[in-house]
Specification:
Blueprint lengths: L1 E4 L5 H14 L11 H8 L6 E6 L5 E9 L8 E8 L8 H15 L4 E8 L3 H9 L3 E12 L3 E11 L1
Parallel strand pairs: 4-5
Antiparallel strand pairs: 1-2, 2-3, 3-4, 5-7, 6-7
Length: 162
């Protein structure tokens, strides 16, 4: 697997699984039915932020990550990131590779920590991965997310020093 900077041409491969994941309403706080152009604006970030794709040997996009500062001004030393793995390629270590990449990116860019603002508590795979990579749950917003099958569930705030 290769992780590289996203190109405009990659959006055609990202959009179908972006839309599928977001429309399911289980893991992201995005509106459930964004248009492709609106979603592209949310995901395809300009420098100094970064968006990357993980691709296989044939160049197939397996997943993607976006990395950015979490706050502006005097809070701009904290990074954040979001990840999407094409469900057709789940279980192959793509999410772990993207998360590890983003941690290294943040460290190299001079950030002091990473914070995830809204990790849905029922997203147990993500919570377990982030904990394995050194993130701690520093708080939970009770009933901060309306899950389509579990109802109102908590949103974890997760943090990791760099």
């Amino acid at each position: 697997m290769l992780i590289r900077e996203v190109t405009a041409a990659d959006w055609a491969a990202i959009w179908p699984f972006f839309h599928r994941i977001v429309a399911a309403g289980e893991t992201f706080t995005y509106p459930l039915d964004p248009g492709a152009d609106q979603a592209r604006g949310w995901w395809m970030l300009d420098p100094p932020s970064r968006t990357v794709v993980a691709v296989d040997d044939a160049g197939v996009v397996l997943g993607t990550a976006k990395m950015n500062r979490n706050h502006m001004g005097n809070g701009s030393h904290i990074a954040s990131a979001s990840y999407l793995v094409d469900p057709a390629h789940a279980g192959r270590g793509v999410g772990r590779a993207l998360c590890e990449y983003s941690i290294e990116w943040a460290r190299a860019a001079g950030y002091r920590a990473m914070q995830f603002n809204a990790v849905v508590e029922t997203n147990t795979h993500a919570v377990r991965l982030y904990r394995n990579l050194g993130f701690e749950i520093i708080g939970t917003l009770p009933e901060g997310f309306k899950h389509p099958t579990h109802g109102y569930v908590g949103l974890h705030i997760m943090h990791r020093p760099l």
